[in-house]
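Quality-control log, excerpt.
Job 1 of 2 completed; input and output follow.
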Amino acid sequence: MPRTRVVVYVDYQNVQYCARDMFWPAVPAPPRTAGHVDPLKLGNLLCRLGQPGDPERVLAGVRVYRGQPIAGRSREKARRFYDRQVSSWRQAPGVEVFTRPLRYHRAKNPDGTEYWAAREKGVDVLMALDISIGARSDLFDVAIIASADTDLIPALEDVTGPRFLVQVL
């Protein structure tokens, strides 16, 4: 019987924030590291969870999408953490990491001091394109999407059909 190839697509910031909100109390404020997950372990878990209904499932890859902090705008400690995190993911077998530079704008703290606030821009579009390209390139039989971003809906509609199974986490 042929194997069912599973690729897990991870919108990392979205997954981290959802995990933090689910497992950490809001008060006191959770540490910035709260909610971090290991993409390969997440991919293996999600693949295993589908095996009772499809014992031939095999994890074919994990694709992680994340904003990249920029020197001079992000805190140095946060940028070093990001570099170590992405480096370790890239060493994991079957994990591919796709990044886009964060965008910054001036913001104010409650005490009136200014800082550079970061936002991810284009990460969801990059992920949506990759899902569509993956389907057309026969990269997977099952795509598992780890994101709560509704901007991905057109890409999911594009690849959903009799040939592919798309599961949203």
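Job 2 of 2 completed; input and output follow.
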Amino acid sequence: MKIEEIVKSKTFKAIISIIGFLIIVLIIFKLGMFVGFKKASFSCRFMEHYISNFVMSQNNSHNLMTELNEKNSLKSHGTFGIIINILINNNGDYKLIIKEKREPEKIVLIKSNTIIEKMKENINPTDLNINDFVVVIGEGNENGQIEASLIRVLPQPPFQPFSQPPKPSEFLEKSFR
């Protein structure tokens, strides 16, 4: 048989199609492994540096580690919550400590290229306040911190989102007074 006849045969085309399909499946599998590894390594680094980031005792961090499981693993790509502290180092770099409802506090680093928006205007890190509600989008670093690329300050809700919602009668009384 000649090579041209082999290339034109249905068997050859079927084998090439199967090999191509397997290569695509393996690429998708490898991409899933990469994303899972990145998420797991951020959670691991976060726990390794939790004590140094938040100056807590070893016992508290152990209790926190036992509470985490696969269902509520840490998200390395961003956070949503309340600013509970704003730290400025000697270089003028800002760090925000954000408290989420069901996750431990996270440290967010503000870089020089971080975009900070409130409504539709850009603001400076100096305009951020404790108790501001923020959404942070960024990338996890090797110290278990989030390097922010975008911070959006949200308007204050009528009640505290991380506590029990007010009873309907309490909410109506407060809003119409």
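Post-run check on job 2. The chain is about 40% helix and 30% strand.
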